[in-house]
Amino acid sequence: MGPLSARLLMQRGRPKSDRLGKIRSLDLSGLKLLSEHLDPKLLSRLKQLQELDLSNNQLETLPANLGLSHLRVLRCANNQLGDVTALCQFPQLEELSLEGNPFLTVSDNLKVSFLLPKLRKVNGKDASSTCSQVENLNRELTSRVTAHWEKFKAALSPEEAEKAQADFVRSAVRDVRYGPESLSEFTQWRVRMISEELVASGGIQVREADIPERPPKATAAREPRAKPAALKRPDDTPLSLSPNKRVCTSSSSAHVEGSDGSQPTLEPLHFLQCHSKNNSPRDLETQLWACAFEPAWEEGMSLVGRQGRARPRGRSRTSYLDWAPGNATCRGQGLSEWGAWERPPTRCCKDRKKELQGQTSQNVFIGLILNTGQAGATSQTVATCGGEAVCVIDCQTGIVLHKYKAPGEEFFSVAWTALTVVTQAGHKKRWSVLAAAGLRGLVRLLHVQAGFCCGVIRAHKKAIATLCFSPTHETHLFTASYDKRIILWDLGVPNHDYEFQASQLLTLDTTSIPLRLCPVASCPDTYLLAGCEGGCCCWDVRLDQPQKRRVCEVEFVFSEGAEAAGRRVDGLAFVNEDVVASKGNSLGTICLWSWSQTWVGRGKQSTLAVVVLARLQWSPTKLAYFSLSTCPGEGIVLCGDEEGNVWVYDVRHILTQPSPLPAAPQAPTQILKWPQPWALGQMVTKTMVNTVVANPTFTYLTALTDSNIVAIWKRQ
């Protein structure tokens, strides 16, 4: 499509007229328009235009001087817009559609509400709640910038203060922080505007943003707190189970066992129900199975996903539980006025293929945005899965930033990667993509910030137990299924229509169900470890080998005797480049063993005894499927148990001890006792912690339970 012409505008305009000035509604959708095709001189002749449809084009920006001052309805769905500030030229706009623009974020959603004071609907939804968020954010940011100005001015002499006003703007943008990390783009944008206005006024306190009061809207009552319950899981049963309700009449303090005072103190911060079946606040039965922190890409973090397995169920609205240290009742942080950003059923950008539409037509993305908290400098965004939902949570504030629902699905595993996407205009964009999989054998690729599912892979005919990305190839994804196969996929890079063309690279056959996947840290492109129902196995995954279907090369055993092989391994992770932590092969212990020392003695053996470095004392429970994780940068091993506790091991001192190491299992560094959060006047006294994961700097720790509770701790 070339530049627009007056003839085309008259053909597509309503009412029909031979004069552009009489057109009130104009449909320019589906014309493959680029930004440069929107000629301001031509469009400014549409003096009476009130409704404009630019959907399904290839627009990256909107020209800043279109001259459509009377425009009330604008549709820009399914484009490539990356900025919304040009919308300020439409002060009368009341309805706006921006769905399917993958480069727009939550911050852009807030910018829209700030720039368009008369806006009533965004993407077909009421805009009043988002406007309320913006008003609260603006009020707090104005206060903080003003306080920063007073502090900044006090440190300077009157002569210096006059010359340093430009420095103040830079200082405010750098130092004034408020709200979760996901809103930092919006808050810094507003801080700059407020600072510049403050400087321009000569230091007089700036007025709050000129956002007109919206008509008051009835707010839904806060959801009641959920009734405590927990699930009992018989040994060797990976399926959904009936609830076994416990009631507690007395309170106990949340505390730490085994800490000598030199170890970091972890304090409970938030308890959330965000995976509830049918959004019921009384649901404490949905089992949660896997979580993964979004890597800080600039730090070059590993992309290996955390794994989870079972058959949970549910979909939820977030409830926040109370917890009581001693006699004080402390609520989760960040519980001020909140609004819901809800998108319609998940879109596939452009015209998606029939198969993909069929898989995603009933999926829903919801983002819940709170306006309190202060963003931290480290990775603090975690994805959790369980039941029908995948949630993305800001750990500092306890905000559920995004929520993805797939009715009929039961999610078991999530993993992050980052992809470089080239737009049609040749610009490169970096996407954080979350892969989620479960019962239906499908892998869903979620562009979380933009809020849509950008691809579905029919990976297996049976449920997917776990998945993880290669740490060295951002598009390579391993999926492990109940069909006793592990498949290595190349997702490829999405095309201009945001479609993935995934291809199979390898198929690895197993003799039992794979539960955990772990690329070997020192050679991730060569070997893959898997913890399975029948033991721990290893495959050669080099892509320069001719065989595309391979069997297990080596099975590792952890003790001598006839029963050494064939024991379940349900926990597996690297502590550093050489040391592996595994669980399940021996009751009540976690094994630390050396990959290099074990592998050097392989020869041509198909069964290989591991070289054990140490054993860690863990719960004596006979229950299975408690996943362990590691924090390699801190030398930490983490694992939950059947009582709701979190076992924390700092193994650096163990691994640096001279040989021989003590034969007896080493005690944990500390045990975080279950804090017993309150719900509907009672306490959730016990639960099973299925998965525990910390961010790379060990600042936040997230635990997922059998009772639909996401628990978050913070290091003090």
From TrEMBL:
It is found in: Chromosome, Centromere, Kinetochore; Chromosome, Telomere; Cytoplasm, Cytoskeleton, Microtubule organizing center, Centrosome; Nucleus. WD repeats lie at residues 457-491. One of its GO terms (biological process) is DNA replication. Residues 239-264 have a biased composition (Polar residues). This is Leucine-rich repeat and WD repeat-containing protein 1. Residues 209-264 are annotated as: Disordered. Coiled coil: none annotated. Required for G1/S transition. Recruits and stabilizes the origin recognition complex (ORC) onto chromatin during G1 to establish pre-replication complex (preRC) and to heterochromatic sites in post-replicated cells. Binds a combination of DNA and histone methylation repressive marks on heterochromatin. Binds histone H3 and H4 trimethylation marks H3K9me3, H3K27me3 and H4K20me3 in a cooperative manner with DNA methylation. Required for silencing of major satellite repeats. May be important ORC2, ORC3 and ORC4 stability. One of its GO terms (molecular function) is chromatin binding. Residues 7-194 form the Leucine-rich repeat and WD repeat-containing protein 1 LRR domain. Integral component of the ORC complex. Directly interacts with CDT1, GMNN and ORC2. Interacts with ORC2 only when non-ubiquitinated; this interaction prevents LRWD1 ubiquitination and degradation. Some of these interactions are regulated in a cell-cycle dependent manner. Interaction with ORC1 occurs predominantly during G1. Association with phosphorylated ORC1 during mitosis is not efficient. Interaction with CDT1 occurs during G1 phase, as well as during mitosis with phosphorylated CDT1. Interaction with GMNN occurs from G1/S to mitosis.
